[in-house]
Amino acid sequence: MRDFLLYYGMFAIYYVFVINSLYLFIMMFSFKSIMGILKSSLYSRYQALSGSPHVPPISILVPAYNEELTIIENVRSLLSLNYPEYEVIVINDGSGDETLNVLINEFNLQLSHHAAVRPVLNTGKVRSVYYNPAYPHLYLIDKDNGGKADSLNAGINLSHYPLIASIDADSLLEKDALIRIARVYMENPEETVAIGGDIRIANGCKIEDGIVSEIRLPNKLLPMLQSIEYLKAFLGGRIGWSAINGLIIVSGAFGVFRKDYVIKVGGYRGGYPGEDMNIIIKLHKYMLENKLPYRVAFCPDAVCWTQAPDTWKILGSQRRRWGRGNLKNMIEYGRYMVFRPKYKIFGLVTLPYNILFETLNPYFRITGLLALIGYVLMDMTQANILLIYGALNILYGFLLGIGALLLEEIAFRRYPRFQDIVKMLFYTILMFFGYRQIGVIWRFLGHIEYMRNNNSWGTMTRTSWKAEEKKTISSLEVRG
Amino acid sequence: MNSLVPAFHQFLQASRSEHNSCGIILAACKQLSPTSVSYIEEALQQKSTGLHMQISYDKNTRLLAVYLEGQNRSETHFFSLQVKDVLQERGLLAGSLLIASFSESKQATSYVLQRMIQEVMELAGYGEIKLFFHRLDGREETAGSILLVNHDETVNEFLQIFLQQKGYHVTIAQDGMDGVQKYQELFPDLVITDLNLPIMDGYQLMERIKQQQTGPASKIVVLTDKKLEEDVKKSFALGASDYITKPFSPVELAARVKRLIS
């Protein structure tokens, strides 16, 4: 027993060591490609591009469920993007509140009887389509509640352009975010199937007329921690993963896709959270199985500001949802693709990494810690192992945090004040005392939820967006 | 918008029926409380026997305006000495005074008042009384008023200075809604607008302008990033006189503007 505990404890230490080393390795790719990204965006003339007839038109899909407080501001902001040709399709997913009516009143929308909805993807029943010629680029779909994925599919059915952008209704795009992403697409329009944008936390920022006018770090604890977390994930992680074409997720809050391939892989999967990761896995699978050259790119300078949950309860439900979605995707696709040479980098690196270090992370962490504690309790002289474990964890995490901050400071400098940098550093450390551990537990709870649902109601459990309580944040708070 | 302008309109409406001339005195003051404003009003009322006048004070610009009914320039000038006395007595004067008088031939418009407000704020010195000449000859005559609707602050600042040097009176609006409001206040000779604007886009702005046109038409120039023929077509359909794409040459823009309002 004692030996087992010791070896398991050692294993946990190695596990932490390997996961962090790998992460560091991925981050090195981020550093390698950031300079290239920076230069190419520096030399790009976005202003000229944003009026150019050579830029591909994009359909922006905005699924909205109970968004009556913020939807007007968001749609107005989307209608004034710097982009030559695009349309905004808002999909009201059977909201229980006044989302539909505030939109109809604000934009004087009329029922449109001859809107061409092509049923290329199956969706919940579309009740009606609204349109006003005075806003020629705005469409509103009203449909029965069916979840976010279902809404996106309905949007695809109506969309007129070859590219689609999915955007959360509680997120704000920077004015040139779309043109920046389009430039990445235009570098290689044949092979680029999906491009992700950078998501940042808007809490604390000043927002006027749907435009982030003053960038500030959040004042509250939770949004601030998430701010750092997002910086690490997007700058440290996703740039690196995209450099080796192993990106497994394009955030649902802001991503651009080639419509033809999204349709070929059957559109978004409903019924489960994690549809954003699901669509990317399916795209990888389709392209690799058909031996088509492709890339899933990431564009760190296309920024989308989103509202972070600021209570433990809402954050917890979001993280449990993520855990559930991740597990579902791994069970549904991951295990059939992992370690198959056919799936190249994606099957040999991304998926093993994701399964071992993301999906199974809570089990290793929790049992490892228990083993160590058990061992120390049995034999007090070995308390230093526990300390090593803790110190290793923090040291590595801090290193990764610094790396992400460094990337931010080299490339973007969104938070120019010195005090902001100090604040970010402080929270990078603070993260390891409680927040990370709770995150692991949430993920674990998400897995439990998944198992429960599976046992009691079979595989197809409908989850409406009701779980996404963060949508209740009012526009007033946004300004606060 | 300066609060003096609506007060002035109110005054004009109340008095226009009987008289056809009026005097305006603008004085740069210190921060005034409502009580000191009413004190000034009382003091002036005592000095002006039987004269209809109105006082208003704008907190942001710290300007005190005195509107006088039926006064020509010399009468206004005389009264301005009393205004100066009252203000100096209490130590409320911060700069100089600017006076003007409008008769029937020279219409008092909010545009002229705006010019006066600008000028009095630029005046140096203390306690001096300057006459405002709203001549309708020379440079003032050829130059027109331009409303610039654009969201890019750098371009706005540059174009405002550039066009002002050419003698135009330039007003800036940051978004479409602001543009419509300022258009209704000023009725400028020419509107330069972007198509891509927050809250209300350039097309809607042009439509509103079209609806509201009663007198002589304001010319519209579209200045935008958009190079799509669809946008060009639609702009001209909505009544634009010219379509200029960015990056643009300011010299060319000025030349085109000059052609449209001369």
Automatic annotation (TrEMBL), chain B:
PROSITE patterns: RESPONSE_REGULATORY. SUPFAM superfamilies: CheY-like. The modification 4-aspartylphosphate is found at D194. Pfam families: Response_reg. The keyword Lipid metabolism does not apply. GO terms for biological process: phosphorelay signal transduction system. Residues 145-261 form the Response regulatory domain. It comes from the Bacteria. CDD domains: REC_OmpR. Keywords: Phosphoprotein. InterPro entries: Bact_response_regulator, CheY-like_superfamily, Sig_transdc_resp-reg_receiver. PANTHER family: RESPONSE REGULATORY DOMAIN-CONTAINING PROTEIN (PTHR44591:SF3), STRESS RESPONSE REGULATOR PROTEIN 1 (PTHR44591). This is Response regulator. It comes from Brevibacillus panacihumi.
